[in-house]
Design brief:
The complex is a heterodimer of chains A (102) and B (169).
Chain A (H helix, E strand, L loop, with lengths): L2 H22 L3 H25 L4 H33 L13
Chain B lengths: L1 H24 L3 H21 L3 H25 L14 H24 L13 H9 L3 H21 L8
Chain lengths: 102, 169
């Protein structure tokens, strides 16, 4: 098995762990943790593909850097949303916020 | 040297796997966060193995330093329940559907990766950090600026969302 395949399998495992967590978690913070897992898998896969093939290594690394920046922005916004939801519904569980209007 | 790299790869894979399992399955959100941080550090080690020390440093700085602290604040601000937020039993249906939703992309992508392996070099080449800087200020200038705009909008949006008027309580 080539080195690239090994790295891709590791990032696939990260993606699947994140997907499974996203379906299982019943609190918004837990879902955010799962999304971060998936984003990390994507970054690892991109860097591995850029470093281990003839593709431009600079583009791969900068792309992953942009993914990290987007992840930071996403985490900030999700934190604000969770705080708003927790303030309004007194809970951050997905089962408590399923109604549109009361 | 070859053997050492394989050993390091195995160790980092174990760290990533252990962290991911803890992050997904732990009933306490703080423990799940510790699992996430373990995974992030494992991925940083993978970046080091790929001869991209800059990415490993950025991973530690942005993810371990900033994002996990943000998530910790989210745990703190949502009044985490005693005994864990995920302590209750979920219906069996949830597990089955969740496993199906996970296994489908896993099987598909895994089959693709195994069936069509790309030609890969054995030893990655290190790109000097100067080239990365030239890329950021040269060909990829627009995305670089857009990222800063997005970060600015996200930060001010977060402040606006959680704004509370004085005396409203």
């Amino acid at each position: 098995m080539s080195a690239l395949t090994l790295y891709q399998i590791v990032s696939l495992v990260l993606l699947c762990a994140g997907l499974y967590g996203l379906t299982q978690r019943r609190s918004l913070v837990g879902m955010l943790i799962s999304v971060e897992l998936m984003l990390n898998g994507a970054g690892l896969s991109m860097v591995a593909a850029a470093q281990l093939t003839d593709f431009s290594a600079v583009l791969g690394q900068l792309g992953t850097l942009f993914v990290m920046g987007l992840a930071a922005a996403e985490a900030t916004l999700v934190l604000a949303m969770i705080v708003v939801v927790a303030r309004r519904f007194k809970s951050a569980k997905t089962s408590d916020i399923t109604t549109l209007k009361e | 040297m070859e053997v050492l790299a394989k050993v390091a790869f195995g160790v980092y894979t174990l760290v990533i796997l252990g962290g991911a399992v803890l992050a997904v399955s732990s009933s306490s959100l703080v423990r799940a966060l510790v699992g996430l941080i373990t995974t992030l550090i494992g991925v940083a080690g993978m970046y080091l193995l790929l001869a991209t020390p800059f990415m490993a440093f950025m991973q530690l700085l942005i993810y371990v330093g900033a994002v996990s602290v943000l998530i910790f604040f989210a745990v703190m601000l949502t009044h985490a329940e005693k005994g864990g937020d995920e302590a209750g039993k979920a219906p069996m249906k949830t597990y089955v559907y969740g496993l199906a939703a996970t296994m489908t992309p896993a099987a598909l992508l895994g089959w693709l990766v195994m069936k069509h392996p790309a030609d890969s070099m054995a030893v990655p080449v290190e790109v000097p950090i100067k080239q990365l800087g030239e890329g950021l200020l040269g060909s990829y200038f627009l995305p670089f600026e857009l990222i800063s705009v997005i970060l600015m909008v996200a930060m001010s949006g977060a402040v606006l969302l959680t704004w509370e008027k004085r005396g409203k309580k």
